[in-house]
């Protein structure tokens, strides 16, 4: 976009940040002009968020700015006292954080939280502040803003919480908005709405936006100028057209190549079913009143039929709240089905026949009867950090499942050998055995989760959004690993995701879920290229243009 401002709104010059003598940000220089969306991209640990925190002067005490300057409208932020800088935050420069739930106060209504910003910076009285907050809620597209003013964060959807954060950031009409991974955890339809909202506000207010992300589809959708960070340094800086047409640095080329996962050739073979869901229902009662009487039901899963063949992958896609994860929990018997059947087919010798497939109705099993089945059906969780016990070493985490489900060798030295093999299988090293989860990156922790699932030799793994929090290059590695393990061991996957770009990469078939029901399912090419249901069409239309082009070409 043409520069409409003689001098930059923000000018970062030779910014360097250190921790205990180690450079985390190294001589970073860039300018952001009025009305420009400037994307700062790179993997986790590249220094993107540290750069944004340095701009806000919110770096942890352990980190030091050793060099450089940051000027906001010709005012050097490093020359300001903390009191002066506090008056700048929110008024001149504001920030939207990655996770709105942890950024909002859970015991204050969302309206009161936004009103607080107006009272502190603009000294508005309560009535005027409330009126202005309702206007802001209308501007960012929050439905029924007068009612939502009195709601608490937990009562809002993920997209609505992010809109509250945007309203809070815009409350004092700042010149610069820093958006730190604002769409990472959002569904494609909500992501599209948030991105459209930010572009609309940019046009109306001539707002400058520093957009931090690792999602190249979002970058292609939003940015005017793009800077790529690697290990604390800027390795490429270019306008959008040149950036996507002819990236110069090898790291940028790799990021773009990994942005759309490569599709594996999948031979469609007729395979006997391993798992079947027949008219599965999971309804949660709504209780009200002093006697907690049931007044209705939330139909999280409402009559679902699915089938997962041996050695194949079924992708289950849909928005948050559609019932995808509840299906996974019902299969694992962590949530009891209200009605219907979860049927697992296992090999048994019956009436003289070897390896006859015998149906086991998982949802009718008691906890003790379900225990032997847990080594056949495992799970990889969305957040690898919260899924691993922080007080246990990696070897203890993997060994725990082997011992509790009585799988593999009993002798400790033989178990250690097995754990070493598993770690090497998932691309880690034997010396990682005695480390703790916090010593690993997100991608490495996800590999540990995969190793833990493999330790009990399962036939089916439920993958619940296992790549949603990962960088594009780490995501590509994890998807390749899952594919290789399927090829080697014939493992079946139920792959739950809202990322449409990875569906052709990982799955043989796809099922689309909306409000507890399957609205469309079939072969990948059939559903992704010729969707029949209007909801599937809306999901695909909401995907960033870069992803849509790749899906069409796949």
Q: What topology emerges from the helices and strands here?
A:
Layout: E1 10-19, E2 22-32, E3 37-41, H1 48-56, E4 64-72, E5 75-76, H2 82-88, E6 93-96, H3 100-103, H4 110-122, H5 126-139, H6 145-148, H7 158-170, E7 176-180, H8 188-205, E8 208-213, H9 216-222, E9 225-230, E10 233-239, H10 240-245, H11 250-259, E11 273-288, E12 293-309, E13 313-317, H12 324-331, E14 339-350, E15 353-361, H13 367-370, E16 377-380, H14 394-404, H15 412-425, H16 442-454, E17 460-464, H17 472-489, E18 492-497, H18 503-506, E19 509-514, E20 517-523, H19 524-529, H20 534-542, H21 545-553
Parallel strand pairs: 3-8, 3-9, 6-7, 7-8, 13-18, 13-19, 16-17, 17-18
Antiparallel strand pairs: 1-2, 1-4, 4-5, 9-10, 11-12, 11-14, 14-15, 19-20
Pfam families: ABC_tran, oligo_HPY
Keywords: ATP-binding, Nucleotide-binding, Transport
GO biological process, one term: transmembrane transport
3D architecture notes:
With 554 residues, this protein is of the alpha/beta class. The chain folds into three domains: 1-92 and 176-258, Rossmann fold, CATH 3.40.50.300; 100-173, no CATH class; 310-333 and 367-553, P-loop containing nucleotide triphosphate hydrolases (Rossmann fold, 3-Layer(aba) Sandwich). The chain is 36% helix and 27% strand. A six-stranded mixed beta sheet has the order 6-7-8-3-9-10, sandwiched between helices. The chain has a six-stranded mixed beta sheet with strand order 16-17-18-13-19-20, with helices on both faces. Helix 4 (110-122) packs parallel to helix 7 and helix 14 (394-404) packs parallel to helix 16.
């Amino acid at each position: 976009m043409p520069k409409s401002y003689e001098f930059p709104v923000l000018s970062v010059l030779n910014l360097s940040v250190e921790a205990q003598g180690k450079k985390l940000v190294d001589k970073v220089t860039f300018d952001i002009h009025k009305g420009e969306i400037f994307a700062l991209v790179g993997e986790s640990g590249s220094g993107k968020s540290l750069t944004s925190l340095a701009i806000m002067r919110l770096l942890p005490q352990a980190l030091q700015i050793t060099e450089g300057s940051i000027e906001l409208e010709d005012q050097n932020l490093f020359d300001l006292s903390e009191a002066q800088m506090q008056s700048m935050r929110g008024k001149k420069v504001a920030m939207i954080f990655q996770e709105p739930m942890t950024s909002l106060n859970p015991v204050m209504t969302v309206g009161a939280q936004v009103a607080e910003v107006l009272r502190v910076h603009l000294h508005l009285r309560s009535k005027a502040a409330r009126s202005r907050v309702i206007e802001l809620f209308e501007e960012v597209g929050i439905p029924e803003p007068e009612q939502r003013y009195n709601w608490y964060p937990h009562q809002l959807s993920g997209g609505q919480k992010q809109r509250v954060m945007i309203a809070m950031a815009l409350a004092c009409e700042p010149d610069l908005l820093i958006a730190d991974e604002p769409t990472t955890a959002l569904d494609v339809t909500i992501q599209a709405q948030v991105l459209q909202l930010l572009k609309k506000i940019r046009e109306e207010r001539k707002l400058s936006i520093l957009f931090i992300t690792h999602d190249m589809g979002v970058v292609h959708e939003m940015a005017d100028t793009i800077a790529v960070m690697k290990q604390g340094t800027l390795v490429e800086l270019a306008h959008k057209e040149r950036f996507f047409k002819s990236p110069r640095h090898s790291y940028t080329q790799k990021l773009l190549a990994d942005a759309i996962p490569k599709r594996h050739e999948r031979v469609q073979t007729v395979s006997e079913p391993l798992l079947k869901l027949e008219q599965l229902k999971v309804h949660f009662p709504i209780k009200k009143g002093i006697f907690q009487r049931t007044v209705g039901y939330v139909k999280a899963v409402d009559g679902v039929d699915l089938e997962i063949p041996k050695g194949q992958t079924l992708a289950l896609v849909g928005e948050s709240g559609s019932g995808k994860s509840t299906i996974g929990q019902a299969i694992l018997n962590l949530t009891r089905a209200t009605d219907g059947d979860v049927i697992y087919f296992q090999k048994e010798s019956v009436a003289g026949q070897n390896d006859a497939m015998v149906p086991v109705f998982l949802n009718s099993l008691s906890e003790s009867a379900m225990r032997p089945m847990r080594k056949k059906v495992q799970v990889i969780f969305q957040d690898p950090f919260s899924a691993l016990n922080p007080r246990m070493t990696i070897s203890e985490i993997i060994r725990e499942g082997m011992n509790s489900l009585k799988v593999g060798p009993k002798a400790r030295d033989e178990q250690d050998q097995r754990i070493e093999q598993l770690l090497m299988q998932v691309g880690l090293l034997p010396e990682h055995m005695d480390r703790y989860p916090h010593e690993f990156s997100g991608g490495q922790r996800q590999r540990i989760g995969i190793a833990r699932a493999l330790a009990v030799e399962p036939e089916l793994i439920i993958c619940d959004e296992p790549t949603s929090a990962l960088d594009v290059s780490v995501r590509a590695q994890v998807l390749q690993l899952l594919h290789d393990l399927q090829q080697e061991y014939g493992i079946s996957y139920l792959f739950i995701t809202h990322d449409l770009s990875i569906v052709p990469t990982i799955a043989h078939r796809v099922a689309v879920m909306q409000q507890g029901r399957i609205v469309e399912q079939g072969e990948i090419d059939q559903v992704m290229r010729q969707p029949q249901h209007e909801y599937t069409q809306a999901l695909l239309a909401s995907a960033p243009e870069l992803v849509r082009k790749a899906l069409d070409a796949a």
